[in-house]
Amino acid sequence: MAYKFGEPNAVAIGCFALVVLLTFAVTFFVSRKQQQSAGSYYTGGGGITGFQNGLALAGDYMSAASFLGISCMVALKGYDGMIYAVGWLVGWPALMFLIAEPLRNLGKYSFADVVASRLKEGPIRTASAVTGLMVVISYTVAQMVGSGKLIELMFGIPYTMAEIIVGTVMLMYVIFGGMLATTWVQIIKACLLLFGVTVLTILALAKFGFNPMTLYGAVETQFGVEMLNPGGLIKGPIEALSLGLALMLGLLGLPHILMRFFTVPDAKEARKSVVYATSFIGYFYLIIPIVGFAAVALMGKNAITAVGSGGNMAAPMLAQLVGGTPFLGFISAVAFATILAVVAGLALAASAAIANDLYISTFRKGQADENEKLKAARVATMIYGVVAVGLGILFQGQNVAFLVALAFSIAASSNFPALFLSIVWKRLSTTGAVMGILFGGISAMVLIILSPTVWVTLLGNEAAIFPYKFPTIISLPLAFFGSWLGSVMVPDLEAQEKFEKQKIRTYLGVGVDEASDH
Amino acid sequence: MEEVLNSERFKNLIKRRWRFSYSMLAVLFFVYYGYVFTISLNKEFVAQRVGSHATVGIVMFLGVIFSAWLLTIIYVVWANKVYDKEVEEIKKML
User: Fold this and answer.
1) B-chain residues within 8 Å CB-CB of A286?
2) Contacts of A424 in chain B (CB under 8 A)
3) How many domains does chain A fold into?
4) Which CATH number fits the domain that encloses residue A349?
5) Contacts of B42-46 spanning 24+ positions with Cβ under 8 A
6) What contacts A50, CB < 8 A, 6 or more positions away?
7) Of B84 and B53, the one with more pLDDT
8) B-chain residues within 8 Å CB-CB of A239?
9) Which residue has the higher pLDDT, A469 or A429?
10) Is residue A444 in a domain?
């Protein structure tokens, strides 16, 4: 008997329980010998290799939204989903070329360390922690609201309950195991997700004689050639430019992704981890469209939209069709693990911003012993967990799609320029960095509110005041302008001198902070 | 340390590092924006057939993903073979 979405699913719950048990066991096993310090809480103690970090980065980045969302977008809109998928990948090479190595060499716990390394700590850490937190919170709410709905559909667990389970399990990983446990959760999740999607793709392609051409043919015969051609996603070159800048450079400003670079011992491993991450993520986005096309060819658009959640169930429905209820259970469990791993990574980034950047470094001026630092990190994680669950419940049923756009836009227009300029531009001063962060962050926020996604879709106005979905085309140049203006108005000679001295560390890796506090 | 900082060799290393990074970034921008601009400006071209049912658009999709991956590989090979060697040499001067 076929499983109906929205009812309790014993196989899915069983599979999920197994995954949670496995990750708890690994968490316990790896963190047993770990030293208890704020350093290892944020960085995992320094024993993580480039390959492991590559997998964990992939686990951090491949969210349930991209797995279920992009396969659904391909299923319903065809080729447009593929254009979107490409955008999520192209930030990775840019991350490698521009910041991976200097970031590892200059930072310790968070990207704010890099910006603050030669500027005045107080204002810089406060500004980058605030924009960093805004990115993390927007991203979290999008994840939590999406996940509550998904878990409701796949496991038959009520929404509020689903939110509380996500929050509690995530907090158990992070509070007890810190970065090391989170890394392993992300590694396990990345393996499960890549395995699950591969099996799903193979089973789906088997229905088309293992020939993608037959699959495209089936899609075309049923739904017309429009499915294989670009539709309305890219409206014009400026829209395309703005979308590309946000997705590409937004990655370079996501605090939870940047934080992962402090888990590896040196710049060489940091570099390696980007190659592995790009390979896994590239492979993932390469096969996801096949899942979407197969879903629509085998089940039709109406069946997919009928299940609800905007058609997001395309991939799980396909899993049931080609592999039966047990395989659906497995895929559902993988999607749940995916949500947990992403939220755990976000929790660590939030705790580094709240506890280290704001509380210890700014409020306490660094005057705290190791115990206090660790305690602050755990308390901050706890606060984040409660806020995440609370916001998740509060925003139930809301259209939160714009929040991902908001997260990437702020990341691209405030975190990225500050980080990048602090690495390459000698004359950047404290005033300049703070002005850049403010100009970029505030303009990104205002323009998102005036954009079609919020102004028209959410607030119900006739026409959008700002015509593009992503504000980066305006907000990114504004951030650079603000940084320049501030640096010219209030130059900082001491920072310029430090910039020269720092080059030994930036380029040769001499005197970098260990990933652990031995 | 001052000696290394002021040496031509170190200054050259930094220059070469960024020249290489920015060239790679330029290639990435060319590939990605070439793709999305072609889509937004020339839909007929993208809709052309390749084989029985695939389109130019699908081939371009595969090409962009493959190129992005290849660029990271090229960067790492360069960094391991050229950059790191020079770093080791300069470190000896410290």
Assistant:
1) 62, 65
2) 18
3) 1
4) 1.20.1730.10
5) B43/A229, B43/A230, B46/A229, B46/A230
6) A264, A268, A269, A270, A271, A272, A273, A275, A276
7) B84
8) 40
9) A429
10) no
A235, B40 contact by CB (below 8 A): yes
Look-up of token digits 């539709």? A231
Specify the 3-state DSSP secondary structure of B84. helix
Let me know if residue A177 belongs to a domain: yes
Mutant choice from B12, B43, B62, B69 vs A, greatest count of A C-beta within 10 A: B69
Q: Tell me, what DSSP letter sits at residue A513?
A: P
ipTM, two decimals, is 0.95
Position A406: which residue type? L
Rg (CA), chain A: 22
pLDDT digits 0-9 by tens, A152-187: 888 888 999 999 999 999 999 899 889 999 999 999
- The Cα–Cα gap between A467 and A103 comes to 35
Is the pLDDT score of A513 beyond 80?
A: no
Reading the block at residue B52, the tokens are 């029985």
Say if residue A493 is exposed, middle or buried (CB neighbours under 10 Å; 0-12, 13-18, 19+).
exposed
A302-333 confidence digits (pLDDT tens): 888 888 666 788 898 999 999 988 898 889 88
Q: How far is CA A147 from CA A23, A136, A167, A193, A330, in A?
A: 19, 16, 11, 16, 16
End-to-end CA distance of chain A: 57
For residue A454, the 8-state DSSP code is I
Residue A426 domain-assigned? Answer: no
Q: Do B39 and A216 touch (CB under 8 A)?
A: no
* A128 lies in some domain: yes
Identity of the amino acid at A42? Y
Nearest-neighbour CA in chain B from A240: distance (Å): 6
Distance from CA of B2 to the nearest CA of A (A): 8
Under a CB-based contact definition with an 8 Å cutoff, are residues A216 and A228 in contact? Answer: yes
Q: Which residue of A has its CA nearest to B25?
A: A94
Note the residue count of chain B: 94
Q: What is the pLDDT of residues A90-148, one digit of tens each?
A: 999 999 999 999 999 998 899 999 999 899 989 999 999 999 999 999 999 988 988 88
Q: Does B53 touch chain A (CB under 8 A)?
A: yes
Strands annotated E in A302-421: none
In angstroms, what separates the C-alpha of B68 from chain A's closest C-alpha? 6
